[in-house]
TrEMBL record:
The keyword Signal applies. Keywords: Signal. It comes from Nocardioides pini. It comes from the Bacteria. This is PQQ-like domain-containing protein. Residues 1-25 form the signal peptide. Residues 460-480 are annotated as: Disordered.
Length: 515
């Protein structure tokens, strides 16, 4: 079983494509990539989650760096002041590494993922604890059996909770904690469990229901009565996907890093059957699927539509925009047309940028494609170099041969005088209307050493990087998971450097570390 975070990432992984005209359209008012109800899920923090309570206060619950305690801290919505951290869980020889939680009506249900004697991120915990609190001050705890790390469920009134474990689930209510065994035939991968005010539990999971058919199975019952079974047809039910309950009557299912794959399964009330109320966009009608070098990819960003890009032969790239109201794809339009066959580039953005941008590789030429509405596209040629991103992912810089482009949610594309020509020259954005570039100079053997600031008023010299690495620079890529850092390769075997461009105390600096 795979762990889930209980938070939807609002951006699909992308690699992408390009075209021709500048878009002046305003961004969509409602992000098509957003999944209904997902905003109510906890926000993931390091080793824990952040919850919005009924009165607007924030509650952070997390496992300590030592793994020895689980702590909570509350912020008052009226004053903005944080109370001091308190220990929620701490037992001898118990080590906890993560937390999952749900809240309703001011109460909190929590699963602390724990092991005895030590904790490992790559192993399922087998000594987890179920916790519940009516006021985030006093907590009650119960040890779960076997592997238990899925998120708990909580009733709308907050008085009841349910906690999945390896052979069933544990409920909490006025009667205290009660263990319930449950047979789940054909179960594959993860599960989620919900509970109503009347203690009706629904246990949902993907299952092989026959040799040729997979379905989402919902087993519902009160107490230990024989469960009522319902099979719900949903794509990829038997794949390694994630579940998360939003509330007692709403569940999301899919790959949470890709909103195109996420479906919503819900019911209007506890007396109604579960049904797919939001189809996963990747399975929605009207989508034209492409295979091969330019297989269909999806991209989205906050306040932007969900867009599908692909090409059957790698020359004419087509785009489609998803309509979340109709739950269908719009007609395919040409986003970019190339004279040569193209493929997806590995120079695409890291993490989740706040703008729609993707990169296509056509021979030795990278082209960045950007749009604000999914209909009008602008192609920005950038040679063999990588994109540059701000640390918060809000801005993207595209290094062109004669000019530098900055893409932002507020301004779209802003073009600045001054580009880059060296194979290892790089740029990073400085807000929506400026950029910083690091370029090679005569005698630097293609290693970028000169740091400059670019704006509409011209170029300003900022400083230099130290002595270049031995050999000549042959290639540069953005460092994985580290916007503003670049990996650079030398022509000398097993030599290179990592360059980091950062702004500190209002000044831009560049530092190189040789390896």
């Amino acid at each position: 079983m795979s762990r889930i975070t209980g938070v939807i990432v609002a951006l699909a992984t992308t690699a992408a494509v390009l075209s021709g005209s500048t878009s002046g359209a305003a961004p969509a008012s409602t992000p098509a990539g957003d999944v209904p109800g997902v905003a109510d899920l906890p926000r993931e923090i390091e080793r824990g989650v952040e919850l919005v309570l009924a009165d607007g206060d924030l509650l952070r619950v997390w496992a300590s760096e030592s793994y020895r305690t689980v702590r909570a801290r509350r912020r008052d919505a009226a004053t903005g002041a944080w109370a001091g951290p308190v220990v929620v869980l701490g037992e001898k020889r118990l080590y906890c590494g993560d937390v999952e939680a749900r809240t309703a009506n001011g109460a909190v249900a929590l699963v602390a993922e724990c092991d005895r004697g030590g904790y490992s991120d790559d192993q399922a915990p087998v000594a987890s604890r179920a916790l519940w609190s009516a006021d985030t001050v006093s907590w009650v705890s119960y040890e779960l059996e076997g592997e238990a790390y899925e998120e708990p469920g909580i009733s709308p009134d907050g008085r009841r909770a349910v906690y999945p474990e390896s052979a069933g689930y544990v409920t909490f209510g006025p009667e205290g904690f009660v263990r319930h065994r449950l047979e789940t035939p054909g179960q594959e991968y993860t599960t989620t469990v919900t509970i109503t005010d009347d203690a009706l539990v629904s246990y949902l999971y993907g299952a092989n229901v026959s040799r040729r058919r997979c379905a989402l199975v919902a087993l519902s019952r009160t107490g230990d009565t024989t469960p009522v079974r319902q099979d719900v047809d949903v794509d990829d039910a038997c794949q390694d996907r994630s579940f998360a309950n939003v509330d007692a009557d709403t569940v999301v299912f899919g790959d949470f890093s890709d909103p195109a794959s996420v479906a919503v399964i819900s019911r209007p009330d506890a007396g109604s059957p579960w049904a797919v109320t939001r189809v996963a966009p990747a399975s929605a009608p009207g989508l034209v699927r492409h295979e091969g070098r330019l297989y269909t990819e999806f991209l989205t960003a906050p306040d932007a539509p969900l867009v599908a890009l692909g090409s059957r032969r790698g020359r004419k790239v087509r785009a489609q925009v998803y309509d979340p109201v109709a739950q269908a794809w719009g007609p395919a339009t040409v986003a970019y047309e190339s004279g040569v066959r193209c493929r997806w580039s590995d120079a695409d953005p890291e993490d989740a940028p706040a703008v729609l941008v993707a990169v296509l590789s056509c021979h030795d030429e990278n082209v960045a494609l950007t749009t604000r509405d999914g209909l009008s596209w602008q192609a920005l040629r950038m040679g063999p170099r990588p994109l540059g991103q701000s640390r918060d992912g809000r801005y993207v810089a595209v290094p062109g041969p004669t000019s530098t482009h900055v893409i932002s949610p507020e301004r779209g594309v802003v073009t600045l005088p001054g580009g880059v020509r060296g194979r290892c020259d790089v740029v990073v954005p400085d807000g929506p209307e400026a950029a910083v570039r690091l370029v090679a100079t005569t005698g630097s053997r293609r290693w970028p050493v000169l740091l400059e600031h670019l704006s509409s008023t011209g170029t300003e010299r900022l400083g230099r990087v130290g002595k270049p690495t031995p050999g000549r620079c042959s290639d540069a890529d953005q460092s994985y998971g580290a916007p503003g850092s670049f990996d650079m390769i030398s022509t000398r075997i097993d030599r290179g450097q990592v360059v980091r461009i950062v702004r500190r105390d209002g000044e831009w600096k560049a530092r190189a570390r040789t390896w």
